[in-house]
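Complex record, two chains
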Amino acid sequence: MADSYLHRSADGAAVSRRTAIKLGTSAAAIALAAPAVIIPGRARAADKLALISWGGGYRKAWEEAFVNPFVKETGIEVVIADTPDLAKVKAQVTSKNVEWDVFDCPGSMALAGAAEGFWEPLDKKIIDTSDVYTAFGADYLPYYMFAGGVGWDPKRHAPGKAPADFVQLFDAAKFPGRRGLRTRISETLDIALLGDGVAPDKLYPLDVERGFKALDKIKPHVKKWIAETPQTISLVQNNEIDFSYTYSGRVKAAQKDGVSIEFSWAQTINALNYLTVLKGSKRKDAAMRLIAFTLRPDRAAAFAELLGYTPTVNKALPLITPETRRWMPDMKNPKNVVMDDLWWQKNYTALQKRYSEWQLT
Amino acid sequence: MRSRHVALFLAPSLLLMAAVFLVPLGQMAATSVDGAALSARAYEELAASTLFRRVLANTFEISLGSMLATLLLGYPIAYHLSRVPPARRAIYMVMVLLPFWTSILVKSFAFTVILGEQGIVNSLLRFAFGPTAALPLLFNRTGAIVGMVHYLLPFMVFPILVSLLAQGSDLHKAARVMGAGRTRIFLRVTLPLSLPGVLAGCVMTLVLSLGSFVTPELLGGRKDLMMANLVDFYTRVSLDWGVSSAIAVILLVLTGMLIVALARLPGEHKLI
């Protein structure tokens, strides 16, 4: 196809230097587009511990709070690569060609991976979990909690005029405005049920049918179903939506950049982030030692200071400054909910298919 | 003699393609039927899935729409580029390539500023025709296609430009001597001779847009889910590589058929 096309112009009247240059230009155009195919960061050095985590400010916080002091203390070198991807874990573990060691991921990935047998059991001789106050499995360890809730622009909606909790977010009559919800069913179904009046302590197991009915009702008021997390902030900023389901960490960073956006602490969905070690890791002991290091109260508190997430070890909490504590959910607030990752692990795939289909109709 | 030379020149690239393209493609096809088990499970699941059928229809609608819009915008640009002096053309070509150097997240933010409810276009419309005159340009199919066209334009402009530049100026002189006017020269000489470039551009943009992923997610609405998003879901979230391979195989076959149909369009310049 392409080569008969080239043939034709080469056979044409004017095979000139110029034509050749133009052909070269279109080849260059394709080459320029090629980086759009993302080449994953690889941790090549065989003796270095490979940590797979997220980029940007998140990575800097990891370096400052955990990796740099860890290297100094243990002499174990660490390579940080972006981005946690369960498909690549599956490829490595099933082909027994494991390059990654420590994997930093949300509950959906940690539990799906656990069900597939992708993780090494946590070595309790190295990792002291006695102070961790949340539940966890034998092969995945929660190390911080993040909060999702309602975000809005205080310049456009004075306090009281914007929904503060999920019941108000799902009440379009009392709080008229354009809403932004996520394209993922986890979190979305939780807030739909809370919005429909389900008591926070009776949320799980989720009443799926009731949740979808609540979503049916709010559907006409949702202007954008958001797949990419940065849009949960930027669309409020651009005045394309009024009320967004977003995350405290994102709002904190946006406020720092001067964006007029507020986050409601009246009710939050709280989810855990986990650390795991890939099955067949060549540096298993070093990986366990890094995980143990993140649970040290002073380190966990330092990480919290940088990103505003809540540590999962009790002893870290008193070490956090009041300014940072302002960005942490009050776990004594009875309206707050912690996501049940185990429930979601069993139900996520089927419900996400149903939800995607629901959006198309 | 000549064909032997051609084969010789093509051999290295053909070998490379066989190793890095055909082999993985074969593996993917094998995964879709669960290897030696030759199971039709993945295909049965897709055949029963309303989600898959809707997304498949979406994918082809958005891709063909984007291809046509890109052609309508790209041809005049290529035509103009072929008529300006080479020095100025170089500058214009850089401008055509600009979309490549911008991250999609930045572009989506910029498009929101232009096309959004409070964006430049709608502000102008309200200024001109009163406060109710605003068009929904974002988070729907229009938004998705605008974003795609912006990305695809260079892939249409360059092949057409190449085929326009390959036309000798003698041809146009001859036509003029024979008494043809500008319109007639364009319709009878320039346009027909540029059709291979048009076809190449159409095929390239179509193939690229069939696999697009982030642009419709950022600028489209809830009904603009594309096939690549579904492949992503099966690959990375549900880890069901059988189904994601089956989707890829189906998309490959349908795209192949579409390209053959495009290339066989009636006319003197059909490619197959």
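Note: The longest helix of chain B spans residues 50-83.
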